[in-house]
Amino acid sequence: MSTERTSVLFVCLGNICRSPMARWVMIDLARDRGVLQRLDIDSCGTGDWHSGEPADPRSATCAARNGLKTDHVARQFARDDGERFEYILVMDRSNQRDVLAMGAPKHKVRLLRSFDPLLIDAHERELEVPDPYYGGEQGFEQMYQMIRRACNGLLDTLPLR
Ligand code: 4NP
User: Fold this and answer.
1) What mean pLDDT do residues 2-12 have?
2) Active site residues
3) What's this model's pTM, rounded to 2 decimal places?
4) Does domain 6-156 have CATH number 3.40.50.2300?
5) Where are the domains of the chain?
6) 10-54 pLDDT, tens per residue?
7) Which of 48, 133, 140, 146 has most ligand 1 atoms within 8 Å of its beta carbon, as the pocket-test mutant?
8) Calpha distance 149→158 (Å, rounded)
9) Closest residue (by CA) to atom 11 of ligand 1?
10) Could you tell me if the CB of 133 is within 6 A of ligand 1?
11) Smallest Cα–Cα separation from 115: which of 82, 148, 68?
12) CA dihedral 61, 37, 112, 101 (to 10 degrees)
């Protein structure tokens, strides 16, 4: 097997709610499938307000309730992420705009939910993971479910070396 791993970067705005959850879910699913060692999985935000902070406790609580390990230190997207990562998976269209403006190569950037097999015919606006930051607990569980379906679809299609 090649020692070079397939690299995946999840991106949201603050890097404390959605993209940390996507990373935790992806690690969990990849471990279940026995392919974790073939992946390099990270997350970041387009904004820097929360850099250095742990995840939002509502995200961490939701993830822990679903059996996930919730280690996290927030960081902002860096220009070399665009070179380093092969798949740059954004949560919404504003993340997509921002990350492209910050230098991510267009061919690497995709909305995460475009990998949800149930959304194969959906319009772009239906492929967003809504920002749960200003909402209630329920929004976090819905976010988790959306991310889990999309990450399963992503793992079905990712070429693993
Ligand atoms: P995230 O959620 O992008 O899913 O991490 C947010 C977290 C913080 C803020 C916005 C969204 N904020 O404005 O501080």
Assistant:
1) 91
2) 12, 18, 131
3) 0.97
4) yes
5) 6-156
6) 999 999 999 999 999 999 999 999 999 999 999 999 999 999 999
7) 133
8) 14
9) 14
10) yes
11) 148
12) 100
